Amino acid sequence: MIGTLNWEYFLVASLSVMKKKLKIRHVIFITLALCSLVAFGQTPIANRVKAVAKKLPQSATVVAKYTDNQRHCLYYIHDNRLFCYDVMTNRCEETVFSSDAYHSIVSSWLSPDGNFFFLVVDRGFSGAAYWNAGQALWRYDSRRKQSYKVGEGFEIKHRRGCNVIKRGTRCLNPHATIKQQRWMAKDHYYDLYGKVIWSKDEYEVK
Question: 141 near 115, Cβ under 8 Å?
């Protein structure tokens, strides 16, 4: 009788251990599967964004990809215009980010968190007008779908830790021809989200 009870106890204990091991293996399998999906971006939205990006014209430039449930879209530049392709509705519309007319889009880049992107436009000015505001830097908020002019000048650069706008302040020989004019300028520094940091002392442009 005692032997039978011990044997039954052994069977119950063994089954309990096996169930626990199966549960642990099941949890591990699900965890690994989820990690793989996150690592490789294999979600329906991510796949759609990837597919749309592959079908863009060769002359198009991708600005930003958003695979979350709120935005689910792709921003890209084509023919000096900004477009947004919504992969859930399959609608593509031009995104007007500049309140001023411009000649071309020079460059673009993302903020560190990816929620904002910046666009540099050439306004097609010449002479003194170009030194003051030949280029403009715009910041676009992808969540609120709002744009903001950060600043303007004759040259705009995106650097590792900041954005720099070079702006002419005054002409030293205004009566000279445009090619022979000498200009003073200031470098205005902004952080990677478009906020003012400081401005460099005035210097002569060489």
Answer: yes
